[in-house]
Amino acid sequence: MKAIGIKKSLPISDDNSFIVFETEKPRPKGHDLLVKVKAVSVNPVDYKVRQNSAKDKELDSPKILGWDAVGVIEAVGDEVTLFGVGEEVYYAGDITRPGSNAEYQLIDERIVGKRPASLSLAEAAAMPLTSLTAWEAIFERLLIKRQKGEGQNILIIGGAGGVGSIAIQILKEMTKLNVIATASRDETRDWCLKMGADEVANHHNLAESVKKTGHRQIDYILNFADTDGHWDAMAELIKPQGRICSIVENKGELNLSAIRSKSVAFCWELMFTRAMYQTDDMIEQHYILNSVADLLEQELIKPTLNITLKGFTVDNFREAHRILESGKAIGKIAIVFDDEK
Length: 341
What we know:
Blueprint: E1 2-6, E2 19-22, E3 32-42, H1 44-52, E4 63-64, E5 69-76, E6 88-91, E7 104-108, E8 112-114, H2 121-125, H3 128-141, E9 153-157, H4 162-174, E10 178-182, H5 186-195, E11 199-201, H6 206-212, E12 218-223, H7 227-237, E13 238-246, E14 265-268, H8 273-277, H9 284-297, E15 305-310, H10 314-325, E16 332-336
Parallel strand pairs: 9-10, 9-12, 10-11, 12-13, 13-14, 15-16
Antiparallel strand pairs: 1-2, 1-4, 3-5, 3-7, 3-16, 5-6, 6-8
Helix pairs in contact: 3-4, 3-9, 6-7
């Protein structure tokens, strides 16, 4: 089968930053589905893995990236019970296994959902990783209760990115919280409002900007941007006994003492945790993806796709990574493998 991957961590401007190669088509066993991939989307994790997984030496065999996909099941393992051959699915994958930037991929059925049928391939491919991340952060890390939160507020740092775009919508549809998102440009501000944010603050000089909206204390904070750079502002803004969740790894030491006197809870969200550690509740991602698909089918939330590239080519993956690395991406970028809609 055809696949696109990396053998060395190179700048995206390098012609060899991605390579196309042939590899054996995998065979499913156990809980695995063999999926013929029709479209993928790219996320910051893609370029971070590309930049860091082969820094010191060239890999013996190419590494296949990609952690968002939509496709059709071609074969199933002997323990599969949730899906059958011919069904269309979408998923965000497992970072410990070969990725979705290939014609075929093996994926555990317990982290797979039914494809939202009313969405295009590109729209569907754009949703899994960000939806799972946002859902887990909101309901499982911050412990926000559904249809609750009236009179409370939540700050989303990085509202126009892929995760921020869907987090705004989930919060507006499934809770009663007042949603404050951050953006620094006119186009990202407009995007946050389009996604449903009640208010928009500027993440440059964050604390002051949020206070100008009339909110001196924040009940919940979701950080989808620079954890180190925003830490002091988060510590200042968070309400006593509030909760903070971040998805962006820190590079320096975080001063947790800054939130100690407020008895603030701080937690991480990593969407890959369940698959990485084969947790007992791994199947929850199957249920979450199906719930998100239902919301999309009912048009209660909308796709966050902003750019579609057509063709399973090295050039398209380089372009998608280039846009993401620029820090100017709004919403999601998808790559459709063929001419299918």
